[in-house]
Specification:
single chain, 478 residues, mainly beta, Methylamine Dehydrogenase, Chain H, five-stranded antiparallel beta sheet, 4% helix, 36% strand, globular
Amino acid sequence: MAAPNVYPTGTTIYDPEKCWNGYTVFTARETGVTLVDMNGNVVRMWKGLQGFPPKMLPGGYVMGHLGVRDEKYSYMDQTDLVQLDWDGNIVWKFDQYEYIEDPGNEPQWMARQHHDYQREGNPVGYYVPNMDPQTNKGNTLILAHKDVTNPDISDKPLVDDIIYETDWDGNIIWEWVCSDHFEEFGFSEEAKNILSRYPNMVIGKGERGDWMHINSMSTLGPNRWYDDGDKRFHPDNIIWDGRQTNIIAIIDKESGKIVWQIGPDYNQNEALKKMGWIIGQHHAHMIPRGLPGEGNILVYDNGGFAGYGSPNPGSPIGHNNALRDYSRILEFDPVTLEVTWQHSYLDMNVLPKMNNYQFYSPLISSAQRLPNGNTMITEGSNGHVFEITPDHEIVWEYMSPYYGDDGKSNYVYRAYRLPYDWVPQLDKPEEKAIAKPNNSTFRVPGSEYKEEKGVIQIKEATGFGPSQTCVVETDDIQ
């Protein structure tokens, strides 16, 4: 990746006429869940609340977590999942999945939540017309971790991905364990060999294999495929993606079986070959009914590094053997696998075409379909959130000004756009257009742009040759 050392933060581009205007929620690194308006003004910050990811609910409610398990014994485990009101009062909390007794720490119940969760009423966790998440009742689907041993995968201890459902009162009413379905995923013998020897070990974080690394989970919701009789796409079924394996899959909620899947091998048929390898992806979900592209799968295809398989010069042992140094947003038909829309540096109308670093986040990141057909993208590694039209015009851009304690990283895991009326506590903010500055003349104070000072103009000299002198004129050099 490549990036300048100094650049503006906050909102840098904003065209109110072309945007789907509202608030944007994200987690400011090591500060708190933050809500900004279209001009980048902070309208609310819940300090101490972290979000993995943060989500707003109608009425000014916010969801996230308040505690993190000691990293010596875990990998991305959150102790709880909470819902706060506008004033920061806890109105719902869940932490009763597993009783943890880590050496040197007080024993406590934990949710072990990581990467995603969904409140009943809304399938995907972002705004969908007529699909508001519940705020004072309803079940919650939670993506979490569980420590397991499974000799069919590896003789090493594993940190497994699970999905469980809890009712409003905290009773666990459904659970699905990823490693129980290992044989359904279609790994080659070569991939199984690599997985057995090195199941993506997380050294120093409990020393266990994070073999699948699911980072996104949501229900399908009502959709045209199920309406047409395809039972794989039952509205209650759950779609998830495994970053480390390059798999996107759908679980049958009733049986727990995998009923639809792409990956880990993208050479299996012509449709997958045409799509190209999806690598290290995040936030795969079905675009809900009521939004442009409904029924298609939308995914942030990170690129970077992932997978298990044949060793190559970039992967001597076959771990992280799939490599690509740019990102893509893909929208595709889940039945034909035809790509219906995509966004990458190749679609940005920039030259030269080798500038792949202009859109690239090998980790985290997300994509949200907006009601006007635009897409809001979180290019997470750089703290870069932007809204683009279907024709790839950037109409809103925001750079997070929040850096961690190291002062070096402003990454944003996932951001969401929400309507103004979900926050009745605030008056609708003023929307002020921000024109994209001309980078060739934009300067920080003390380095003002001066037009053509010190320019040397080469003059044509008749009979100019090797033994003659070229005549030049200059303006006053400043």
